[in-house]
Design goal:
This protein is α/β, with parallel strands linked by helices. It has a single domain, classed as 3-Layer(aba) Sandwich (Glycerol-3-phosphate (1)-acyltransferase). Helices cover about 40% and strands about 15% of the residues. It contains 9 helices and 7 strands; from the N terminus they run αββααβααβαβαβαβα.
Length: about 200
Amino acid sequence: MMKSLFAAIARFISGANANWVGCSPDSRQRIYFANHTSNLDALVIWASFPPALRVLTRPVAARDYWTKGKLRLYLANRIFNAVLIERKRPTTRDNPLNDMLNAMGESHSLIIFPEGGRQTGTELAPFKGGLFHLAKDRPDVELVPVLLENLNRILPKGEFLPVPLLGGISFGTPIKLGTGEEKSVFLERARNAIRSLYKS
């Protein structure tokens, strides 16, 4: 009940409809990788899924942000079932890659943001290596590029209250790591998979 309510609120605030360009909603394990412009990004992607798919999909989020205050922690744990990772000073005990792989198990999908931090413009920052390592460790999982548009205007950096505007979400054609493909080549190909959705 609460999950459906928060999903409805997120869809109302963002005005974003899911545009499935290169694939369709599916319960198979996937890693949805998107550009990052707002703290609403993970919520809006998660909310755009059908209810049965929301249960199986876990946003990856920054622990330092989502553990500030009881409300954020409640939302992360009880509503989104987020995977909270240490992004500032990870140790061997706080290995983001292991946390994500363990969270996936045999049935869950992930929502991740390979740029690492939020960007203010339309150009994507270089991707961190996490997406490559996930693709290498889980070659059975589809990697789905996701383009988010206009969400940085709905909840600008530093603001707490969102401003309802029209956002956009486009899901592209799944990709996989090629045999022997180098990390830098793969990460640039993944960036281009998101960039290509601007034309959709």
